[in-house]
Predict the structure.
Amino acid sequence: MDLVSAPSGESSSLKNPVLEVASADVSKAGTATENIAAAKGEVSQSEYETDSDGSGDEWETQSLYEDAIQVLRDEQLREGVPDACTLDEAVAYRKRLHEIGKAAFVEETLGQDTVTAKKLCTAFGILPPAFLDDAPDEAFHPLLAIAISREFSRRPKLPQYNTIDDAVRLLKECKNIVVLTGAGISTSLGIPDFRSKDTGLYSQLAHLGLSDPQEVFDIQVFREDPSIFFSIAKDILPTEKKFSPTHAFIRLLQDKGKLLTNYTQNIDNIEANAGVLPENIVQCHGSFATATCVKCQRKVMGDEIFDEIKKGVIPQCTSCPTIFAEDSGVKRKRNSNGVHRSRKDNDGDSSDDDYEIPTAGVMKPDITFFGEDLPDEFGHRLLHHDRDRVDLVIVIGTSLKVAPVAEVPGVLPRTVPQLYISRTPVSHTEFDIDLLGDCDVVVSELCRRAGWELKHEMIPADEKVEVLPVEGYESRHVFKVVGA
């Protein structure tokens, strides 16, 4: 199971990308936006190890417009949208942008008056907001800057990979495969994901009285009231040592010596049940595999507190009482701000009423909450181990909405082929081949076609899968079990 948005922190080894501002001097630009190409630049590999310049001005300006952005999908362009580019025009503009760069593209289009900024926004997937309907074209420049920046930094699809046979050939030939996984690989085991309507975990949390269901994984909320997290922890904790066919597929890649790294956003630690070795996994958001006392920092194996979690109670540290007993000679007085001081530091007030009775610390599972840093291993391994070795990327069961994990496909070399396996496609990232359907069904069929034996009790021996093309997409395929 993956978290819905990025944990963050200054000390994370994978920094936020630096903002690079490019500009093109176009004489027709209005006074509000003299340099209309000002936008976030393409993220280079080295920039992931570089802090921002700290000004924040460009990002602050853009974020105001980001709130107004409505996504315009290629399917809509194909059907026709009033005052928008056709899909063919949009594809041509995108191709030209990548060919000549941002500044030259702006000069060639807006600078030569060949197209309006309002219409050009639609080529890059942005539907201009209604409140700008009567505004001059210059008012659309900030939106266009965002759109151009997004498109320019997006990895272009490799045209030589399109078919199922291409996907199978890549599986068989490649030797250093990075697998990026999300909640979709565990849902067949009855573990809920976060976002699905009605069935996702967040849709079931209204009873907790949170302003935002994501707060259940907020570190400040946990510190103030850990009972909120532990009231739902039992629902996402695996109850048995099971694993899905997709977990078995990752193990099969490992057994064949092809698995470079499995970056998992899930916190269920089910990869271990399948036998994926710890040295081959980066648990980007931590996991229930271990837990740490919030007071004394004692660390234990996760299964030591599983019984308490399953009962919905808050697990307490068993070492804290011993520490308190050893320190019993020094009583601590509670200050009004919650900071404690020893009796010997007191100003002479001998009243015992204000003295705290020590309590054991809460055992917090070592998952990465919102507001905590990602493990240092994430950025270090990605940049210094995998980037120069990877020859295939497979993204499975995630909508790639969790930064910075979602940025992994864009950080790896653009010449490396990428496969996407999930129920629905994503539009903000370009993959070479989309393999759509239940993850377990897709991987089992790929293995059959590769001549690999993927053994799992959840895969019927007589299972037959049909693969259907998606109209208008040469590289998008839907997998369905025959008779299902």
